[in-house]
Amino acid sequence: MKRIALGAIAVLGLLVFAAPASADVQWQVFERRREQCFNTMNSATPEESIRGCSDIISMRSVTGNGRAQAYKLRGDRYRELRDWDRALADYNQVIRMRGDHPGAYYRRSEVFLAQGEYARAMEDANAVIRIAPDTPGGYRVRCEVRVAQNVELDQARSDCDHALEINAIDTAALAARGVVSLRTGSNQQAFADFDAAIFNGRRVARTLYGRGIASLRMGRQREGRADIEAAEQLQAEIGATFASYGVTPP
């Protein structure tokens, strides 16, 4: 009997010590998944980050706001991979859970813009401005929608100007305003905007091609041709994209 009692006490002791150890392991797992999902150190691939966010979403202990943020971040990773359907599904879920989440509306507007769903992109951009008027994203997307359709260019410029008043180095807004300036013949302004976007890290086909056209129009032939060739190497169809804006090299 004494042996049985001592054995029972030993088992209870193991349970007492096992519970905190198990909790500690669970916390470490959660922290690892959270790091993957948020990816603040940019150390995880999009696929790893998606797995981390998916695990957080499945955890019962995660709060509603935490789960909504995990859906938002997973949507961002799907958007990076151009998996538009899954990105939209996650942003839609965030908006169902939190109808006032400006980040979900903003990212969803970008997906709609990429898909050519301009009316829906404009609707979401307006929602961002209504919810968070002191952030640049909604104004920038409204500018981008008008640029893509080559309409209401004065209003497009006004929206890009507003976005840049809030964040002077919003490189996407700089690039969009650069297109507006090319369309309206303000070549020096276009060059300055594309050049600033490139300087601040957006060295992509759009900014190089835009700067190249501005350079050619101002007589800088060598610089202009170099930028256009570099842009075409990054994206073969960039010339057709600019032609849709009503902008072609001289």
Instruction: Give the overall form.
Output: elongated
Strand content: under 5%
Average pLDDT figure? 88
Runs with pLDDT <50, length 5+?
A: 1-25
Helix content: over 70%
Oligomeric state of shown chains = single chain
The major beta sheet can be summarized as: none
SSE-based structural type: mainly alpha
Number of separate strands: 0
Provide an overview of this structure:
The protein is mainly alpha-helical and 250 residues long. It has a domain at 185-250. The protein has helices spanning 2-38, 46-58, 64-80, 84-97, 102-114, 118-131, 137-149, 153-166, 171-183, 187-199, 205-217, 221-234, 238-244. Helix 5 packs parallel to helix 7, helix 7 runs antiparallel to helix 8 (153-166) and helix 9 (171-183) packs antiparallel against helix 10. Residues 1-25 have low confidence and may be disordered. 78% of the residues lie in helices and 0% in strands.
Any chance you could write out the topology, listing elements then pairs?
Layout: H1 2-38, H2 46-58, H3 64-80, H4 84-97, H5 102-114, H6 118-131, H7 137-149, H8 153-166, H9 171-183, H10 187-199, H11 205-217, H12 221-234, H13 238-244
Descriptors for this entry?
mainly alpha, 13 helices, 78% helix, disordered N terminus
In short:
The protein is mainly α. The chain contains 13 helices and no strands.
